[in-house]
Amino acid sequence: MVTSTKQTSREVVECLKVISDPTRLLIMKLVEQKEYCVCQFVDMFAISQPAISQHLRKLKQAGLVKEDRRGQWRYYSIDESSVHSHLVKGILNHIDKEDEQFNLLLSKETPVNCK
User: Fold this and answer.
1) Do 82 and 64 touch, CB atoms closer than 8 A?
2) What's the confidence (pLDDT) of residue 7?
3) Domains of the chain, with CATH numbers?
4) CA–CA gap between residue 86 and residue 4 (Å, rounded)
5) What contacts 80, CB < 8 A, 6 or more positions away?
6) Which of 2, 9, 60, 79 is the most buried (most CB within 10 A)?
7) Is-contact 34 99, C-beta < 8 A?
8) Is 66 helix (H, G, I), strand (E, B) or coil?
9) Which tens digit of pLDDT belongs to each residue from 57-73?
C-alpha cells in the first residue's frame, strides 16, 4: 500500500534528477505496468546491456525499482513501497498513453528469452 509521505525538498529534487533522464523515465513507465528483464530493455531501447544496467542501478539506488534475481538475470518492477512512489506515479500519469516513444518501445517488446 502506498501512502503519500512528505519529503524534504532535497529528497524530491534527487528523485526528479533520477527520472529526468528520458531513458529512466520510460523505464519507469514500463515497469509501472509489469516486470521486465534486463535483456528485454536492451532489445527495446537498442542500447548496450551495460548502459541499461547503469540506468537501472540509478533507479534502484533511488529506491524507485526493485530487483528480483533469477540466476544470472535481473528482473525489475516498480517499488510500490518506495517513499517516492506517489510522486513518481503522479509524474508517470502525465505521460500520454499515445506517447510515440513509449509506444515504439512497447512495439519492440519481446518475450523473455534470457536463460
Assistant:
1) yes
2) 82
3) 9-107 (1.10.10.10)
4) 6
5) 1, 2
6) 79
7) no
8) strand
9) 999 999 999 999 988 88
